[in-house]
Predict the 3D structure of the following.
Amino acid sequence: MDVTLSYAAWLSQQATDDNTLTALFDDASSVLFSKQDHETHLVGTATEAKEPDVD
Amino acid sequence: MTDFAIHTAPFSVLVANHSNKLTAALAELYPAELITRPNPQLIYDFCLQVQRKWAGWGRPFHVSSGDQHFRMTDSAQLVPVFEWGVNWCVASYQHQFLAIHAAVLERDGKALIMPAPPGSGKSTLCAVLMQEGWRLLSDEMCLVDLVSGAIVPYVRPVSLKNQSLTLLQSWYPQAQIRQITAGTTKGTVGYMLPSKHSWAGMQQTATAAWVIFPQYNAAQQQLTLSKVSQADAFMHLANNSFNYAVLAEQGFISLSRLTEQIDAYRLEYACIEQALSELNKLC
C-alpha cells in the first residue's frame, strides 16, 4: 500500500467528517449541514434550504 | 420632529420621526407604557427613520434604517409601512435569535408555531386562536433563543389583510381592529390588538411543542391534517427562516434542537371552525 496515498485518503475522510453536521431525529429522518458550503440537505434528497423574501 | 422609542420586548426601537400622524396612530395600537420619549442614556436595538423628504402629493415620507433605504410612502400608508419596516429591521439585523417567518401562540407553556407564506391563512388562524384564548407571541416572527432554545415572544398587533378583516370583524365583533388602510401593496391592511393576556405575557417565553403548516383552500371538501416528518419540518422551517443562512452552523444546531421538540403537521382547511376544533384536539 502506498502510505502517502493512504494518509491522504484518511485526511480527506477526516475533512469530510469534520465538515458535516448531522441531525438524526426520533422518527429516523435526518438532515445534513455542510460547514464548508453552508448547505443543508435532507438525507437522501437534493432539497436545499433557501431563505424567504423579507418584507 | 416627534421622535419616540417603542419597547416591544425583546427589542427597543428608536424612531426618528417627522410625522405626528404616525405618533397618534401607534398610540391606538400599542399600550401607552410601551411608547416613550427617547432616552439618550439607552442603547437601542435599532433605529428606524421616518423622514419627510419633500412637500407634495407623491410619497413624501422616507422610511429607512441607518443608510439602508426601505420604502417611500405617503401619509395614508405610514402605519403599515412602519410596521413592515420594523419587521425588516428585525429580519435583517437581529441575529441573536433564529428568526422564522411564522405565527406563534402559547397554551400551558407550550408553543404552537405556524410557518407559512403569505396567502396561507396564517394570520387569520392566528387571530382566531388568540380570540379563543391562546396567548399570542407573534403573528409574524418566531424568535428562537440561540442559547436556551426557548421561543421568545415579540408581541405586536396582528396584521390582517383584505377579506380576513371582514371575516374576523363578523366572527368577533368585540375584537379591536384599528388603523385599516386601503390601497397598500398588500391590499387593505388592518391591525387587531393583542389580548390583554398576550400583552401581559410579553416577556414570558414558551417551549416549542407543535409546528403546523396551515394552508387555507376554499375548494377543500374536507379538512386534512397530515403528519410531517421531522426532517421535512426542519427543511420547511429553514426555508421560512429569515436568518438561518446567516447563522450557518449555529442556525443548524438551534433548528435541530427545536425540531427534536416538536410534532409537525400540514393542515389544509376551508372552514375555520373545523380548523380550530382540530387544533384544540391536537394541542
